[in-house]
Amino acid sequence: MSNYHIKHLEEYFQVYRKSVRNPESYWEEIAEEHFLWHKRWDEVLSYDFEKPEFKWFKGAKLNITENCIDRHLRTRGDKTAILFEPNDTTEKAQHISYNELHERVCKMANVLKDKGVEKGDRVCIYLPMIPELAVSVLACARIGAIHSVVFAGFSSKALATRINDSSCKMLITSDGSFRGNKKIDLKGIVDAALENCESIENVLVVKRIETNISMQNGRDIWLQPLLDNASSSCEPEIMDAEDPLFILYTSGSTGTPKGMVHTTAGYMVYAAFTFKNVFQYREDDVYWCTADIGWITGHSYIVYGPLANGATTVMFEGVPSYPDYGRFWEIVEKHKVTQFYTAPTAIRALAKEKTEYVEKYDLSSLKILGTVGEPINEEAWHWYDENVGKKKCPIVDTWWQTETGGIMISPIPYSTPAIPTFATLPLPGIQPALMDEEGKEIKGNQVDGRLCIKFPWPSMARTIWNNHQRYKETYFSAYKGMYFTGDGALRDSVGYYRITGRVDDVVIVSGHNLGTAPIEDAINEHPAVAESAIVGYPHEIKGSALYGYVILKETGETRNQDNLRKEINQLISDRIGPIAKLDKIQFTSGLPKTRSGKIMRRILRKIASNDTSNIGDTSTLLNPEIVEELMENVISS
Ligand code: WTA
């Protein structure tokens, strides 16, 4: 029996039981056998749900890039580590070997050091999906700087908020980016953001699209000449197990984005372990995750998890629809991809197109398919199974979160029989619990409740940057002695989990978490708007889309409504990013409120979803008559 690599169901159950009975010795064995340490830990785990505080492999010393790069050089130096597929089909793919990756990361690390970045400093990375993004991430880890990657689709305001929250010293960006047939002026967005960021000392700029951009003297520096002059050897900084590795922002239901802090050793062990098992990675496989490194999926399953296993990981710069809807499948054929990991929203979008786009390509290299980010509907699951997997590839529906660092509930291919829409069973070491609203655990099967995790796991986020109190309140206050996920789930008769969706005010649009409160704040800045409320409603492709109810000030009521809608969406785009734009905006004279003034979002959700047969009791409302008005004017198409 191997703790690290599970190959069949009986083995899973044995390993799982062991991981729960004795978590410390379970993780200790894995850590010992599969990673490189400079010093062993003094204690595998210490924790306190009250504080809350979690420490894994306390006292151990390591550098994650030695585990992801250096230790492979002897046996896999010429193997492709990163396979870069550019946006444009006419540009050649790049096969970056482990040797080359080592050289590039060392050079980049030396550039950072030379520009004054030290251990513990925060470096913001705002780059498209080009090799420099992965290299920058690893270069930070090499010298012990904390990376904070901001998805390059976020607006200048959103970027500035994130830079300021963790007072980043350095920003790495590019002149622009390619996205399908568009060119995006990233540097322009950066310049606007930096008007309000005092902590940034230097901006390193990658040349990608070769346009004219303005470079601010003394602040902005082209990266390539610096790399050309940098030494290709850089000793790794020896880090403590619990030193922060990165910050990654995720939306909360209220307030500013939360800078989730992940630390070094536990994150590494868990990302590597889950990658190996969930994707059953074998030496000659070519693994492709279509996510962006700007999200946790890219951190754990494009960069750290695959590289820690010496894998070949594909990085794709483009979009699934360019030059046409066959692009994903063209890439699978071209690089003989063996594992393919994507989001349900992408599957739904592709399933809407002609099946010729899939049939045209030879997908016989594929062995395992995965999904992540939101619940997958049955129709999309079957389309994926039949058209992409040709009914011979196990599908792993992986449930996890930015906060969990790695996959938590997922089938293990060839072991766990899959059922569409079920994430199935917890991975070893993960102890889920379903809770009722009174705070009691719901035992037994065929039940549903709020999903919690009742024992620490190595890759859990340790805090929210600069706001430990918020960390405590958000995740550890609802249920004593447990981590609360914010998701609802059901457990079926055999113990399989199915995630039913968020139970808070976070809406998942095309796989992106969006808190409704920050969007409302953006709308309310519009001079004609008095008040607003945002809810999610089911959407064929996006999974959920955003519906806005907006009350106008008297002065705004005479304005052209279509223009107002455009202005409101522009405001959201500026404040947060285009992904947060509303699909539907209904102007209304009021919102349903309780006597204490709280907006009854349940009613708004039902109206937006055209599900008004069972609107529930409205008698406790302060203004029950508004429900009628809202239903009459609902935007249904
Ligand atoms: C949702 C992405 C159903 C869930 C890795 C969670 C899912 C949120 C699944 C985290 C899944 C993720 N089935 N829902 N397989 N995977 N979710 O932080 O609501 O971007 O809380 O992490 O996505 O999103 P995040």
UniProtKB/TrEMBL annotation:
Residue ranges annotated for the Acetyl-coenzyme A synthetase N-terminal domain, each copy included: 12-68
GO molecular function, one term: AMP binding
Enzyme class: ligase
Superkingdom in the source lineage: Bacteria
Enzyme nomenclature, EC number: 6.2.1.1
PANTHER family the UniProt entry points to: ACETYL-COENZYME A SYNTHETASE, ACETYL-COENZYME A SYNTHETASE 1
Listed name of the protein: Acetate--CoA ligase
Source organism per UniProt: Leeuwenhoekiella aequorea
